[in-house]
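Re: the pair you flagged

First of the two:
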Amino acid sequence: MNRRTFLFSSLAAVAVQAFPKDLFADDLSILEVAHLLVNNNNAIRTAVEKSEIKGITDLAELVLTATDEESWIYLSKKINSFSEYSFDHKNGLWVEQGLKTARAENMREVIIDDSVLNKVLDSTLKGYGNMLLIDYHFHPLLTENKGLVELVKKNPTELKVNSINKQVIDWYCTDSNITTIIPSANDFTRAISLELLEKPQRFILRYRLASHLGIIDYNFTPQGKTYFKKFIRSIADGNNHYDGQKLAKEVEERLDDDFFPAVVHTFRDKTREWLTNNKRITYTNEHFKVIITPYKRVA
């Protein structure tokens, strides 16, 4: 097999029907790889054929070992037309959408190439089928959380996912530290921008982040979507173009004023539940919603 050409013929029939090889035929070569990885070579785009669960295993490793962020679109075919949430969980496709990385303060933040998502949306709008799309990225632990690394360096097992004790949880319980393991203002800004895209009926788009503590689903509450859509309309011109920086600033202000302090409070209150029962923890307020699922529960 030519390593620079991703052969979709190896996918399950349901995936082949949904994603013909030509779907990603652009000026960037598709390179098939065995595992999710950080790719800083803009001449190629990596793709991985594996289920979401197996991909999450890769993400958990990247959280601990990578120094840069990376992002993918995960695609899965809807297999039961009578159930809104019935998708093929055994066969999936991860397509890299990180264009490159850029230095941002003390971390390396991935820049998203929206052409991947746009092509999939175009294909589904043209009748390729109902799909589950998940916008995935991860926050590297060792790059972002140097204070945490210093805290637990005498006990290296604490850097492993599923090996998090109360001391580590306490470290996260400040406004500044909690932001390193939950979605950023940029993440939420991208999410609300994607919510404005035209999507076919029963097409599901989700947003997930892998961090030290688990897989994080994030989105806006119904009130939050209404609020930010109204805000976008208020700053848009006659062609419905708007200043993304103004939107990002508004999202950041709402997070700083309302959400991050509430997350810290809830996180501290549910520490024992997190450590002993591996339960999901939900943070929500008027505008934002975040659900953390421990890696043990995902697996």
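Second of the two:
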Amino acid sequence: MSKEIAKKVFYFGKHAVASNRRINLVTLTVTLTEDDGGRLEFSVQGDAWNNLQTDIVWGGQCIDTMMEQCPELRDDKTYMLIHDLWKKHHLNGVYGDNRGFHHVIPDEDMAEIKKLLCIK
């Protein structure tokens, strides 16, 4: 069973996601968990909210799609840092075989993740 170490939601303002009006709040939720063996797993979930923020119009692994739809996100350093870490390490503990593979996040990237999540 995994234990959540840290979780943080990052807000990137309103963008034109579901229409041509800038009414959809874009968020990324970054999570770091630890499995029973003490191994850390990194994950990111993207959400674009309806104008009332009662439901999402996009959600899940849509970080690339959000960036394509809202190219101004490329100018946000935090968004790009999370995007780059997501590309390299998202769900690093998930594997498709029974050999016990676990992708270990390099120290410099783990330091960035911990800085994002405000943990030591």
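The chain has a mean pLDDT of 89.

-B.
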